Amino acid sequence: MRPSRFLVLLIPFSIAVLSGCSGGSSGGGGGSQTSNPTTVTYTFTGGTPTAAAVQIGTGTFATATVQANKLAVSVPVGTTTYAVAYVCPPVAGFGNTVTAENVIEASTQDGSSFTVSCNGSTGATGSATGTVNATAIPGATNVLIRGNQGYGTSVGATTGSFSASLLTGMNDVAFVAVNSSGAVLAVKIVRGQTVPGAVNGGSSVVFATTDETTTQSLTVNGIPSGYVTPPAEAVNYVTGAGTSFYLSTNATTQYPGMPSAAVATGDFYSFEANTDDTATHTAAVGTTVDSTTGGSATIALPAAWSYAGPTAAVLPTFNFTYSGFSGVAANAEQGEIEWAPTATTLDTISVIATGSFFGTSTSITIPNLSTLTGFLGSAAAGATVYWVADIYGGSAQEFAFYTSPPATGSLSFVQKTGTFVQP
Question: Is residue 76 part of a domain?
C-alpha cells in the first residue's frame, strides 16, 4: 500500500500539486487576457536534479536549466497547461541504488510557486545539545528528541545529556517521553531554538506530570469489504515551525493527545489510516486528515477501486475511471513504473497530473524522454516491470506533497499495483 507521507517512501514518486477538478484540459487554452506570459517557479529541495525538461501545452519536451535549485516555466498567453520533468540524483534504496524520473503535469490554475523534494534532506544539519529529565513521568523509560522534519535522536534513558543532529536554523525542539513499548506518555516542546547550539539556553529540560498526554478516541469508517481490519493507523503532530513527531504509529481506537502546555498556534495533528485487500495485497485505500484540534478524531476511507492495470508497453497508459472522488475540491492521478536494470539498481518513472491539467480525461501515458540528455531509457525486453497507479482526492490543494503540509484539510487515495513483462 502507499506508505504514510511521514514515513520513508518505499516507492519513489513525484512530488507535485493537487488542483481543483474544474480546470482546463491537456490541450491548453483559455489563458490570461494580459500580454505577459505566466511564470511558474519550482524550487527543488534535498538535491538538485541532474536533468530537467519542460513541455508547454501539447508541445514537445525541451531541455530546461535549473538555476540555484529553481526552475522557471514560462507559459504564454492562450495556454494554461504545462509539464515539468526532472531526474533526481541516485540515492540508496533497500539494497540498491534508485534513480527516479518524475513528471508533473499541471496548469497555471494550480498556482505560480511550488516546492518539490528531490531525494531526502532539505538542508544542512547541526548539533543541538543539552540535558533532559523525565523521571517525573510514571512508566517512562526513554526520551526521544525531534526537530524540523522529524530529525532527531534518542537519549536512551529518562534522564541524561544529548547531542541531536537537527536541521540548521530555527527549530522547535520536541522532547517525547515514551515507555518500553514506545508508547508516548508525555511531551514538552522548547520553541524557537537555534541549531547548532544549546537547547533551552543550556538549562535542563525537566518534565512534570502536567506534561503527560491524555487518551483520546480515534475512529476509522468506510473500511472496504475484504480489506485488512483494523487498518494501519498513525497520529503525527506537527508544529508551526515544521517539527514533527509521532504520537502513535499503531493506533486502533485511541491515541495520546497533546498536553495543553505543549500546544501553540500553528500546530496541527495529522491522522492517517490505510489498508489493503486481504486476498492479493495489490489494492489499497487511505486517508490523511490534518486538524488544528485534537480530541475525538474520525477518519473516513474511500471506496475501493477496481483496476486491472495498464496494458504491457514500453510507455504504458494508465486509466483512472473511478467515481469515488467526484465533486472534491482537489484531485490528481498518478502512474509509475519501476524496473531493475541490474541486481543493484532500480529505475523509476512517475507521472502525476493535476485535475486542472487532465480535465475530463481519465488516462495518463508515460512520456518518452529518452532522447533528452540525462533522462531514463526503458526496461529491456522481457524484464519484469512493476507498476503503481494512484488516484487522489480531497479538500486541500498542495496537500501531502509538500515539506510543509496545510494545517487543515484531508486527502484520500486509492491505489492498485501489479507487474507486466516488458514487450
Answer: yes
